[in-house]
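TL;DR need structure tokens for one chain.
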Amino acid sequence: MVKQTAGRNQLGDFAPKFAQLNDDVLFGEVWSRDDKLSLRDRSLVTLVALMAQGLVDSSFQFHLQSAKANGITQEEIAEILTHAAFYAGWPRRFGLMRQRRLQTPRKPTPKVCSSLSASPTTALRSISVAKAFWPLSPPSRWAYTT
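>> reply
TL;DR here they are.
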């Protein structure tokens, strides 16, 4: 294991304790627990966590190179990021959509024709009635027909 000094080199004079935790705890202890999680798997999790936060700065580039060194192929990285992209933002958007749907009154669903064997006249009359109760166009174009 290579001793990490990036924290001390970049932040040691400004935030010495943070730099020490970065180098000794995060990279020294956490990343060296191979019996709990392999370096390859740690790299995978780290890439996804950084991407999910939208962090694609030098730390992402460093961990991208580390992932390659830890055995993750370019094809796997592309698939991991593609897959994670949906879960990094999609659940939030899905939840927001679901919440918004609950707050928005639902429009009634028209029944245009209850039977496939209805005559053309019955079908047209059903469509006209349905439009009267549930117009598909904006209010300025509502056409009430019978």
